[in-house]
Design a protein that fits this description.
The complex is a heterodimer of chains A (530) and B (313). Chain A is α+β, with helices and mostly antiparallel strands. Chain A has 3 domains: 82 residues; 103 residues, no CATH class; 241 residues, MetI-like fold (Orthogonal Bundle), CATH 1.10.3720. Chain A contains 19 helices and 16 strands. In chain A, strands 1, 2, 3, 4, 5, 8, 9, 10 and 11 form a 9-stranded antiparallel β-sheet that branches. Chain A has a 5-stranded antiparallel β-sheet with strand order 12-13-14-15-16, covered by helices on one side. In chain A, helix 2 runs antiparallel to helix 3, helix 8 packs across helix 9 and helix 15 packs antiparallel against helix 16. Chain B is mostly helical and 313 residues long. Chain B folds into 2 domains: 58 residues; 212 residues, Orthogonal Bundle (MetI-like fold), CATH 1.10.3720.10. Helices cover 68% and strands 0% of the residues of chain B. Chain B has 12 helices and no strands. In chain B, helix 3 runs antiparallel to helix 9, helix 3 packs across helix 11 and helix 6 runs antiparallel to helix 10. Chain B starts with 29 loop residues before the first helix and ends in a 7-residue tail after the last helix. Classes of the chains: A alpha+beta (530), B mainly alpha (313). At the A-B interface, helix 2, helix 4, helix 9, helix 10 and helix 11 of A face helix 1, helix 3, helix 4, helix 5 and helix 6 of B.
Chain lengths: 530, 313
């Protein structure tokens, strides 16, 4: 394996330490320095270009962070000192951007109402509301229309408009110009003015898409065509009043105030779209106080804990049983058995979960076909829980078998021999000697396995997708917290609620942190830092 | 995935040596033989059947004809129809594109994880600086929060990156690789540091006296000596990335051409279980080949490392 003698922890701790600046005195090779400078120059060029893109997009926080990061990189790598920095900066940057920042961002999002319907900034939402509220109203002026084109039928569009009083106007994309009657000339059955040609119905049809989007700026609002023969002024119903921060409904003369990410009128009616805004702890509050959400959460949480604990229990029991059976030197072929049993452990878990799903299929699956029954393995009321545990035991017991085998062999034979001499029966020896000793070395692994299954998204999602679903609830019967979070954020049909999903994620963070705190007490990692 | 703990990767495989009881003589009495070891074979055979049945079922689905409802354990005839349906027939999914994506994601993630971890571990093992101990603790703390929990934030973050840099944002495997790299550093750095600590410090000292710079010490002395642990980390990262579904689905799931095998095949079969069963099995078999090969190659490292703190991810 290696030419290096493994040094045990104790001797390693006493090994001579290098001085704080171990090799500062030596220059690298010229080639190395050249490679470093070229790489740094390239990086600088790329990041500087990136900064301009971020400035264009208005992402100032990203821009400041990237600029600082670049400065730190240059400062660290161009100096002859800062040797630890040279080795720590790359990993630290990745960790900060893709592991630490997402966690902090999750906490931030959990205090907002971010989601479908609230995914714009307030400014964008106001623009969108104003734009969408432009429409024809009963009071608008209606014009009769002749569509013109400058010079030839393919030229720039223009509208020749006649209002109800007989006043004529020429409307272009830029302006509306009053015309004298004398300006208007006849062109066959149609009217036009000098420099323009009238479009007949066929020619207009050829350019219908252009005509549809063509508007003329009028005194009261944009003038748009209604078919090829008429036009009207579009009125903007909602107007934002920047001074008071309110939205005014000009048609009904109602003032809507901004509240909780929406413009709301006196009756509580909301104007869509809303915008992202800080809602404080109300996502957490809803989780704790809204009966429906709280009910969901508690049910999902209980199943998550049961699922993780039962998975560990069953796979450990089965694995240990096998390990005990195999822990007999007189048994032949153990190596072969072990090689065969280990195969499922090597397969990607997405694949095995889906294969089991196919085998459990109610109408076509092999299990129902061979048992000649029609059990709803993945859709009944209780069976899905059983199916999930069967599959997860299948996925997990190999691992438990491997670790238990290793741990069993490390238990000295003398202990069991001595107990035997003292008259302890087989089960007694197992319960009083083997199991306690085994658990000493394996319990950190059991806790780690619990924590892993707590977030075992692949299994639940690919096997049942959290189904069967419960009417009126967005969490299915077999959803665990992580799949529930996923559904809230990405799968609720039209409504994705990033804020609430993030609040759920923060709650899972806290639970996982508690589990990890417990497991730290078992592992000696913290004591080993030297 | 948690990786094996420092210094343990070289422990002896518990199964490698067959312990034979001294003076053991095979018994001829069948009843006694059964009571002694025979029943163990019955249990073992049952366990093997339980372990292998789904695997055999996939094999028979891939090479058989029929769909989910008509599949037999031993197919009536062995054909490659399902492979053809998946790869060449009109309307087939971009299977080899997915395969290539998976390989790129796996290899780049593995290489990146090794490089970043080795760099950090060198600093933590060989250099003394202020903030070293807190730094190591911080790594453990960050590792407590698997980044798949921050999936919503990562999605929104990648959406914002996409508007600025479409090549590495949402919907690209590069964005996914960055996320994998960010999530892989904590425990792996600890593992590599533990191994570096076992390499005698006198080696660096003598290199320094011979005029080596710190970079030369790192690249030419430490890295070659740490090959075993670096190989284990690279291969474990590769294997983990091949099965990861949640992050991959959210970051690249919407873009069929950018999907990995895990997302591509899962979405493919979820869209029609009965009639896509055969082609899915064919694809899953091919997807499993690189992982199983690596696993068999790595088996003894993994098995011994498991006893000291690994969980399959």
């Amino acid at each position: 394996m290696t030419g290096v003698e493994p040094v045990d922890e104790g001797r390693g701790a006493d090994a001579p330490r290098p001085s704080p600046r171990p090799v500062l005195g030596n220059y690298g090779s010229p080639l190395g320095i050249l490679v470093k400078l070229v790489a740094l120059a390239l990086l600088n060029a790329i990041v500087l270009w990136g900064l301009t893109v971020m400035a264009d997009a208005g992402e100032w926080a990203f821009l400041v962070f990237s600029a600082l990061a670049l400065l730190v990189i240059d400062w660290v790598y161009l100096s002859r000192r800062r040797i630890p920095g040279k080795y720590l900066v790359p990993g630290t940057l990745f960790l900060l951007v893709f592991a630490v920042y997402p966690v902090l961002y999750t906490v931030f999002i959990s205090t907002t109402n971010y989601g479908t319907g609230n995914n714009l900034s307030q400014e964008q939402a106001i623009q969108q509301i104003e734009r969408q509220s432009i429409s024809a109203t009963d009071e608008a002026t209606r014009y009769s229309l002749q569509i013109l084109a400058r010079g030839n039928p393919g030229g720039d569009l223009a509208f020749l408009l006649t209002d109800p009083d007989g006043e004529r106007f020429l409307g272009t994309a830029d302006e509306l110009v009053p015309l004298a009657d004398a300006d208007v000339v006849a062109d066959g059955r149609r009217e036009t003015i000098d420099g323009f040609v009238p479009l007949n119905a066929g020619q207009a049809q050829d350019r219908v898409a252009e005509i549809r989007s063509f508007v003329v700026p009028g005194p009261e609002g944009e003038i748009d065509n209604d078919g090829f023969g008429a036009a009207f002024t579009k009125l903007q119903r909602y107007v934002y009043d920047a001074a008071t921060g309110t939205m005014v409904d000009t048609v009904n003369d109602v003032v809507l105030v901004a509240d909780g990410g929406y413009f709301v009128d006196d009756d509580g009616r909301r104007l869509l779209p809303g915008w992202r805004t800080n809602v404080g702890l109300s996502n957490y509050e809803a989780l704790l106080t809204d009966p429906a959400l709280r009910g969901n959460f508690i049910r999902v949480f209980v199943w998550t804990v049961v699922f993780a604990a039962a998975s560990v229990f069953f796979s450990f029991s089965l694995g240990l049983l096998l390990a005990l059976v195999f822990n007999n030197p007189t048994m032949r072929g153990r190596q072969l058995y072990r090689s065969l049993i280990i195969i499922p452990y090597a397969l990607p878990s997405f694949m095995t979960a889906l294969v089991w799903r196919g085998m459990f299929n109610q109408s076509f699956g092999v299990i129902n076909r061979w048992l000649d029954v029609s059990l709803p393995w993945l859709s009944g009321q209780w069976l899905p829980y059983v199916s999930i545990l069967i599959v997860n035991t299948w996925l997990g017991y190999v691992y438990m078998f491997l670790v238990s085998s290793g741990a069993l062999q490390s238990i000295p034979d003398e202990l069991t021999e001595a107990a035997k001499v003292d008259g302890a029966t087989g089960p007694m020896r197992f319960r009083r000697i083997t199991l306690p000793l085994l658990l000493v070395s394996i319990s950190p692994l059991l806790i780690a396995s619990f924590a892993f299954n707590f977030n075992n998204f692949n299994l639940i999602y690919l096997l049942t997708e959290g189904r069967p679903s419960i009417p009126g609830s967005d969490a299915g019967r077999t959803d665990i917290l992580i799949t529930y979070t996923y559904k809230v954020a990405f799968e609720q049909g039209a409504r994705a609620d990033y804020g609430f999903a993030s609040a759920l994620a923060v709650v899972i963070f806290l639970i996982v942190a508690a589990i990890s705190a417990v497991s730290f007490r078992y592992t000696k990692q913290l004591e080993e830092i030297r | 995935m948690k990786a094996p703990m420092p210094g343990e990767t070289t422990t002896v495989d518990p199964f490698a040596t067959e312990h034979r009881r001294a003076g053991y003589v095979p018994t001829r009495n069948p009843a006694r033989w059964f009571r002694d070891t025979g029943w163990r074979h019955v249990v073992a055979l049952t366990a093997v059947a339980f372990a292998l049945f789904p695997v055999i079922w996939v094999l028979s689905a891939a090479f058989g004809t029929g769909n989910l409802s008509a599949q037999r354990l031993i197919p009536r005839e062995i054909t490659l129809d399902n492979f053809r349906t998946l790869m060449t027939e009109p309307g087939h999914p971009p299977f080899w594109r997915w395969f290539a994506n998976s390989m790129i994601v796996g290899v780049v993630t593995a290489a990146g994880t090794v490089l970043l971890c080795a760099l950090s571990a060198f600093a933590f093992s060989r250099l003394r600086f202020r903030g070293r101990r807190p730094g190591l603790l911080a790594l453990l703390l960050v590792q407590m929060f698997p980044n798949l929990l921050a999936i919503t934030a990562l999605f929104l973050f990648m959406t914002r990156i996409k508007t600025m840099f479409p090549a590495i944002g949402l919907g690209t495997i590069w964005g996914l690789i960055f996320i994998y790299l960010g999530g892989a550093l904590g425990v792996n750095t600890w593992l590599v540091k533990g191994f570096f600590d076992t390499i005698p410090f006198s080696l660096d000292e003598s290199a320094k006296i011979d005029g080596a710079s710190h970079a030369q010490t790192f690249f030419l002395i430490i890295l070659p000596l740490a090959r075993p642990v670096l190989a284990v980390i690279a291969l474990l990262s590769f294997i983990t990335s091949q099965a990861e579904f949640l992050l991959a689905d959210v970051i690249i799931g919407a873009n069929d051409e950018q999907r990995t095998l895990a997302v591509g095949l899962s979405r493919y079969i979820l869209a029609g279980f009965d009639n896509r069963w055969g082609p899915f099995a064919a694809g899953a078999l091919i997807a499993a080949v690189p992982v199983v090969l690596l696993f068999l190659f790595l088996q003894r490292f993994i098995v011994s490392g498991l006893t000291s703190g690994a969980v399959k991810g």
